[in-house]
Structures are given as structure tokens and as C-alpha cells.
Amino acid sequence: MPIVGKRVVVTGGAGFIGSHIVDRLMSEKCEVTVVDNLSSGDLRNLSKWSENPRFRFMLGDLLEERTIETLPRECEIVFHLAANPEVRVGTRDPRMYYEQNVLATFGLLEWLRRSSSAKTFVFTSTSTIYGEASQIPTPEDYGPLCPISIYGASKLACESLISAYSHSYGLKAIIFRMANIVGSRSRHGVLWDFITKLRLNRDELEVLGDGRQRKSYLLVEDCIDGIFAGLEASANVIAIFNVGSTDQVDVATVAKAVADEMGLREVRLRFKDELEGGRGWIGDVRNMLLDVSRLMRTGWSPRHSSLESVREATRRLLSESAQ
Q1: Predicted confidence (pLDDT) per residue in 80-128, tens digit
Q2: Across the chain, what does the average pLDDT equal?
Q3: 183: nearest Cα among 303, 290, 27
Q4: Per DSSP, what are the bridge partners of residue 35?
Q5: Which residues span the domain enclosing 106?
Q6: Rounded CA gap, 157 and 165, in Å?
Q7: Cα–Cα distance, 89 to 83 (Å, whole number)
Q8: Residues 160, 68 share a domain
Q9: I need a labelling partner for 141 at 20 to 30 A (CA). Which of 37, 76, 155, 268 fits?
Q10: Does 123 lie in the same domain as 26?
Q11: Residue 295 included in any domain
């Protein structure tokens, strides 16, 4: 699917991954409307486009009907990234995930169903929909899908809605199930958590879980390249792609790498190992590595390993926060 010059809506476009997608769309001469309630996004992520006539920002919440109804009617493609991104808090407030992830997605799909021009829907999902997969690396056709977090369950519910709307109403849908994406502009997740803790205590770092959780990390630029490679290669009514690195790294190694990038050589790691199986929190998937061969067949491949992504992302986050 060619993207150059398209009229595009990006929900959650002021956030971490969303703003990087906006950068790519603007470089492709698209007309871009960003919709964001700024609950986790930041307008500074979009500042370089604020005066561009092809760019428009709408402050709004997808749970409010007036926001949905004021989306540009001439839109051709919707990139849907607006969601609550925090995996850990779901056990305390599950309704938040239903509303911000599932209900918001339903409202947007209803708008697309009525639209005469917007017929392509791009959705960012998550590796957590697989739960504790027995097949590692995990391919897109793995099943049954049994998420162990409320966040993962809400994203899987969104995927089901998208699939049904795609087959029922002729929408073209591309779903990207992503590993841990890291890089500039991120303000949540393990790297930001470690950096914040080490700034408060340079001698000791609390690590949730036993530190042996093994996961895949991908630099955001590699992620964006993968998304657009999958978008351009998609020909079916609905396409699903895993997006991640081809290797894993354990959390203890991530912690040491962050400390090293901060110039801290003698940090003690204190593991908060209180949950069954050494998990960091309820819903924490201990072993995650996605099979990305389907996306690699488009010609895309990750340019960085998991550890390289962690180190480069840490350097960028430290540089940003020092400005």
C-alpha cells in the first residue's frame, strides 16, 4: 500500500511511538491529523511540525462522541495508537483498560464503518496477547491466545473487534504485535523506571522480579521501519505482523546496562522477588521472543540486537532529560 501523500489520522500521535509515526508520515508528504488527550503524550514531541500546513493537532478524547465526530471526513488511513500503555496497573483498575483500549477502539471502528473514505485501519497491539507462550519464538498463528494481564486481554479484545469489522464492513486492517519498544521520547517502561530509580539512589537499584525474565527489546526506529514495511506489503483484508528483535536479554542484564550507561559501575541490584515464578508484577510474562520472520519476508530486518537497543535507548533518554 503506497503511503505517500495520503490523508491520515493518528490517534495517540503525541505519544512515544505515535510521534515517531507522525515523523515518518510527514516525511512522506502525508496530510496528518493527530488526535490526543495528552494524558501520556507531549506536544513537544510534535513541535517541529506545528507550523506545517499539512499538520493538524486535535486535543480530544476518543471516549467523547464530539471528538469522534470531528475527525476529518476526507481521511483515508487511521493509525490507532491511543491506549493506556501501562501493563502493571491493570489489576488495580481493569475498567480503565476496557474504556481506554476497548471502548475507544470500538468508537473509532464505528466511525470508520460510516466513513466513505477512511477504509484502512492500522493498529498497534502487543506481544502480551500471547500470554505465557509455549512456543518460543512465538509466531503470529500461535494459539490458543491466553493473555495473563488485563492490558494484554484488552488488546486482544481490540484485535477481535478489528477482525470482525474488517470482514463485516470491508475495512482493510493491519495489526502489529510489538515487543518492548524503546527509544527517545519514551516516559514509561523498564528503562525509564531504572533511570528514575538510579537518579534517586546511585548505589542500589530495585529490580522487580528475580531478574531472570527474558524479553525482546527493539529500538523505535527499527519498529517504525517494520510498521511501514508491513503496511506497504499488506494485500489481504487483514494482516498481522509481529514486530521485535531476533534475540532476548534478561532484566538483570538490562539493569546493569542502564547503570553502565549512566557511568555507575558499582550498583547493587536488589531483586524484589515476591511473586510466583519470579515475575516482576501480576501479569508479567517471564519469557517473550516473537517470531518476526513474516515481517522479515517484506525485506525488513532489525538493525540492532536487544542489548544494543537498550543501550542506545538509554543514551537517548539520558540526553533528552538533561536538556
Answers
A1: 999 987 766 546 788 989 999 999 999 999 999 999 888 899 999 999 9
A2: 95
A3: 303
A4: 11, 58
A5: 7-181+219-243
A6: 12
A7: 13
A8: yes
A9: 76
A10: yes
A11: no
Structural domains counted in the chain: 2
CA distance 22 to 162: 22
pTM of the predicted model, to two decimals? 0.96
Place of cell 516525511: 27
Residue 236 has pLDDT above 90, yes or no: no
Tell me: do 122 and 201 sit in the same domain. no
Same domain, 19 and 100: yes
Is residue 54 within 8 A of residue 5, CB to CB? The reply is no
- CATH at residue 308: 3.90.25.10
- Kindly report the number of other CB atoms within 10 A of residue 69's CB atom: 10
In a domain, 296, yes or no: no
Give the separation between CA 203 and CA 299, rounded to whole angstroms: 44
Between strands 238-243 and 172-178, the pairing is parallel
Q: Which three cell numbers stand for residue 255?
A: 539493569
